[in-house]
Amino acid sequence: MKFNIKYLKCSLVGAVTLALSSAIMPALAHHSTASFDSVKEVVLVGTVKKFEWTNPHTWIQLDVKNDAGEVVEWSIEGGSPGTLSRNGWKKTTFNPGDSVTIKVHPMLNGSPGGVFVGAVLANGATLGR
Fold first, then answer.
1. pTM above the 0.85 mark?
2. How far, in Å, CA of 59 to CA of 62, rounded?
3. What is the structure's pLDDT at 34?
4. Which of 38, 50, 115 is closest to 80 using CA atoms?
5. Residue-wise pLDDT tens digits, 57-107
6. CATH number of 42-128
7. Distance of CA 127 to the CA centre of its chain
8. Domain boundaries, the chain
9. In 10 A of CB 3, how many CB atoms?
């Protein structure tokens, strides 16, 4: 029986590729934006209730008055602390009680939440686009 090194190399490359792609898939699935309406943007004017500087994503809890004058809490997903800190953000970028205007891609199911697009802080500074 003759040993075929070319066949062995191809098999090894295929096995490594399969193993790596299997390891990457859960990470890709985690970062899906399928639950957000990426075409629609909603502008929210409200008061920061809480800013969670946590991995894998930051969260802004924002109290927003609806058309009936009732306060509705919105959950806004942001980027990772590492990515945001490289863009100048800090744990104190949003503080409870801050008045802010935040633009989001809203949830497709209509619940009060979305993914962060941009913001205007009370001091006029802008974040995002």
1. no
2. 9
3. 82
4. 115
5. 999 999 999 999 999 999 999 999 999 999 999 999 999 999 999 999 999
6. 2.40.50
7. 14
8. 42-128
9. 6
